[in-house]
């Protein structure tokens, strides 16, 4: 199968040659393509030949170009031979806790080292072959994002639901020696990888120079865990203990490695009722997309946006979202309340779809909005601001498949979705047509 073209950019090599969405690039420089990485390697030269399958048949192309000049296309997917699926049965796997009837992509268990390199997806590395290892070393596919959970082979094997000897240490040793770097994560499951197991995992990871950062996130549990092992949710007192452990631990690694090395995700601070650390302690947010420093980053961005002292006329601002972020963003809401003439109304929404243990905005569904907002008796046509992370990227669709139009029509409300950046959030809130 070829590399399917999804988009062709104007004034590009591709557009000048008449390539179109739906065409497939079959070979480049005589080589069949398996993924975007291979395409980029072959395209890097100044003389490139390739074959394309179009509606009218196979066409051969040859071009002379600048070294840094792209073809001007976007592929349907960055892997052309199919996503490498996960072969584990992790006892905490969120996919196994998904509700029935959601969009199909949410049930895909990917564990593909190529997506880890290209997109920052976390992988377990349990399905790496010798050929994969050689390619990672040869092509310097670094950094990789690795789901570690525990470095004790027996503990990790149990957590991943496998029946063979875990090879994490052997793989990390080899790739570390080859100069490959890593960002690692630990999903903390009380009774499995906490306590001494957790301490030894952090210590072992610090021995690999290639490990750049470690994030710790609490296990996420939904009400759809039928037939899965019993796991306890991280409790507030456990979150508090971890936060108190973190400061001296980060100070130690800052002295020894020149980096704080290990960070807790924002959920721990929400659980403990603590404010997230100052921005500089996150060292550029190396694991921002894993929920480490999201709250602090947003507050910092919002803090740079100048709010008006007063409004020319009184306005009502209705903000809704997951229980955890609505609570954690209290400093931002307090700033808004200081604007004279602005009435701020906050609506924390319980996740009626996945269950009350899931309290982030990104997992709220259309059904959650319908059930939650209905109880507030909002006037018809009212504007309600919501986090954009609730929607599939680039589309107006919720996790449960409902569209924004369907939910808006059901509630008779005007739903407006906000970007993730704090300054852009405030800019959107204070647009004249938004209030």
Describe this structure in words.
This protein is of the alpha/beta class and 435 residues long. It folds into 3 domains: 3-75, Pdz3 Domain; 95-292, pyruvate-formate lyase- activating enzyme; 300-434, no CATH class. 31% of the residues lie in helices and 20% in strands. It has 15 helices and 15 strands. The protein has helices spanning 13-16, 36-43, 113-119, 130-139, 153-160, 168-177, 195-206, 236-257, 266-272, 294-303, 323-328, 330-337, 366-374, 404-411, 422-429; strands at 3-8, 24-28, 31-32, 47-54, 57-64, 73-75, 122-123, 144-147, 182-188, 211-218, 262-264, 310-322, 340-349, 383-387, 414-418. The strands form 3 sheets. Strands 1, 2, 3, 4, 5 and 6 form a 6-stranded antiparallel sheet that branches. Helix 4 (130-139) links the parallel strand 7 (122-123) and strand 8 (144-147). Helix 8 crosses helix 9 (266-272), helix 10 (294-303) packs across helix 15 and helix 13 (366-374) runs parallel beside helix 14 (404-411). The radius of gyration is 24 Å and the shape is globular. The mean pLDDT is 91.
């Amino acid at each position: 199968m070829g590399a399917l073209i999804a988009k062709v950019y104007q004034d590009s090599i591709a557009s000048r040659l008449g390539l179109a969405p739906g065409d497939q690039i079959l070979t480049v420089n005589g080589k069949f393509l398996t993924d975007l990485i291979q395409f980029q390697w072959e395209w890097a030269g100044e003389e490139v030949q390739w074959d394309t399958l179009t509606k009218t048949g196979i066409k051969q192309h040859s071009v002379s170009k600048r070294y840094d000049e792209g073809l001007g296309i976007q592929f349907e997917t960055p892997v052309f031979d199919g996503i490498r699926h996960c072969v584990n049965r992790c006892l905490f796997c969120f996919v196994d806790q998904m509700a029935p009837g959601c969009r199909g992509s949410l049930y895909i268990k990917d564990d593909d080292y190529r997506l880890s390199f290209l997109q920052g997806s976390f992988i377990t590395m349990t399905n790496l072959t010798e050929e994969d290892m050689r390619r990672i070393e040869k092509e310097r596919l670094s950094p990789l994002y690795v789901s570690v959970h525990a470095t004790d082979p027996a503990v990790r094997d149990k957590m991943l639901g496998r029946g063979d000897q875990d090879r994490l240490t052997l793989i990390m040793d080899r790739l570390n020696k080859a100069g490959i770097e890593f960002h690692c994560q630990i999903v903390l499951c009380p009774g499995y990888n906490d306590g001494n197991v957790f301490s030894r995992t952090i210590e072992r990871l610090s021995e690999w120079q290639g490990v750049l950062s470690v994030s710790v996130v609490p296990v996420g549990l939904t009400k759809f865990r039928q037939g899965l092992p019993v796991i306890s949710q991280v409790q507030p007192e456990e979150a508090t203990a971890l936060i108190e452990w973190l400061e001296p631990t980060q100070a130690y690694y800052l002295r020894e490695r020149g980096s704080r090395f290990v960070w807790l995700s924002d959920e721990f601070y929400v659980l403990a009722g603590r404010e997230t650390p100052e921005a500089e302690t996150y060292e550029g947010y190396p694991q921002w997309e894993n929920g480490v420093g999201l709250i602090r980053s947003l507050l910092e961005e919002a803090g740079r946006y100048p709010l008006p002292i007063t409004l020319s006329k009184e306005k009502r601002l209705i903000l809704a979202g997951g229980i955890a972020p609505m609570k954690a963003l209290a400093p931002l809401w307090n700033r808004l309340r200081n604007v004279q003439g602005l009435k701020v109304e906050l609506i924390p929404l319980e996740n009626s779809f996945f269950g009350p243990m899931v309290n982030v905005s990104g997992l709220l569904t259309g059904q959650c909005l319908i059930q939650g907002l209905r109880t507030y008796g909002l006037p018809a046509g009212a504007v309600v601001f919501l986090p954009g992370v609730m929607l599939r990227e680039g589309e107006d669709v919720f996790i449960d498949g409902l569209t924004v139009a369907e939910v808006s029509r059901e509630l008779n409300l005007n739903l407006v979705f906000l970007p993730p950046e704090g300054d852009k959030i405030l800019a959107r809130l204070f647009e004249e047509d938004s209030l």
